[in-house]
Amino acid sequence: MADPRVERLASVLVRYSTNVQPGEHIAVRGTPEAAPLILAVHEEILKAGGHPEVLVDLTGIEEAFFRLASDEQLKAISPVRKLITEAFDSIISIRSDQNTRELSGISPARQRLRRKALMPLMKAQMERGASGALKWCVTLYPTASYAQEADMSLRDYEHFVYSACFCDQEDPVARWNEVHAMQQRMVDWLVGKKAVRVCGPNADLTLSIEGRTFLNSDGHHNMPSGEIYTGPVEDSAEGWVRFTYPAVTSGLEVEGIELHFEKGRVVEATAEKNQDFLLEMLETDPGARYLGEFAIGTNDGIQRFTKNILFDEKIGGSFHMAVGAGYPETGSKNESAIHWDMICDMRDGGEIYIDDELFYKNGAFVV
């Protein structure tokens, strides 16, 4: 029997997140693990009059590529992937890993080389997304691997995922519209503001948002979503921040990260675990040591850390920052081959001031 939550998620992705129109070309990416959702999305696209192109990745292919590819192969860009990024109307990416640690044995240097090669595609996606020419959305299909990372049974993890997306409710879109309205009040209040200060047990940091735009992340690019975000002025960050959750990427957990900034640049970086990987990532390119994003998570349906950034950065009561590439629509000018989010929980203390006015305290808005 089909899971009605999967059907609702497919409908939300096609009708709300990417708003597929007749004649549009939509790429759908996932693994065989996500077959129920891929099939449901495929059907919804056809009903909407779109042209779906389904791309299925097999578990183990990426690990084999990094293990066996020459430097020339690592630098190569697939013409198919280039065409999709530069010409398709929408991309729906369904994360559905069977093994979240598949790349944990791959050297950071090889991963860095690959990221630098793919930087033109990343830039093209961000620019087309900013202009509205490309409607992209990333979501997740619950697998046993993700459930294990979150220390949950698969059944409980499924409930967690669909609840965070509001797909356990009859009308998910109505709930996302409510999220949009709540966040838009905060975004409107921030218009024209110039300075941010984050202070508390895990941060003493200032940065400029003068001339930058806060955006309302309400389920269009990420599903689930729930955050407001901007791109800080590149040379403005001063101070330090200690991230309370591990930063998980490429199958590695980097724990206890602390970053110190001067004139916007990370001048000192330490970690309690996998510090060498952290330092390697920060050497990807010049933009990797500057901030591309500052954001506040608002999704109160996500209250626990699951080692999956799609959910964790939305934790209600947290803020996160990303080193590397910024989103052009925020006004960010930072370019990099990486965009690496790091999260700090503020529910146990901490304040955010905007132009010296208290904006956020102990994980809640106060304006």
Order of helices and strands: HEHEHHHEHEHHHEEEEEEEEEHEHEEEEE
Low-confidence stretches: none
Count of separate DSSP helical elements: 11
Taken as a percent bin, the fraction of beta residues is: 25-35%
Mean pLDDT, nearest integer?
Answer: 96
Count of folded domains: 2
Percentage of helical residues? 25-40%
Question: How do the strands of the widest beta sheet line up side by side?
Answer: 13-12-9-6-5-17-18-19
Properties at a glance:
11 helices, alpha+beta, Thermophilic metalloprotease-like, 367 residues, 2 domains, globular, eight-stranded antiparallel sheet
Could you characterize what this model shows?
By secondary structure, the protein is an alpha+beta fold. The protein folds into two domains: 161 residues, Thermophilic metalloprotease-like (3-Layer(aba) Sandwich), CATH 3.40.1830; 194 residues, no CATH class. It has eleven helices and 19 strands. An eight-stranded antiparallel sheet has the order 13-12-9-6-5-17-18-19. The chain has a five-stranded antiparallel sheet with strand order 7-8-14-15-16, covered by helices on one side. A hairpin with a 2-residue loop joins strand 10 and strand 11. The model has no long low-confidence stretch (mean pLDDT 96).
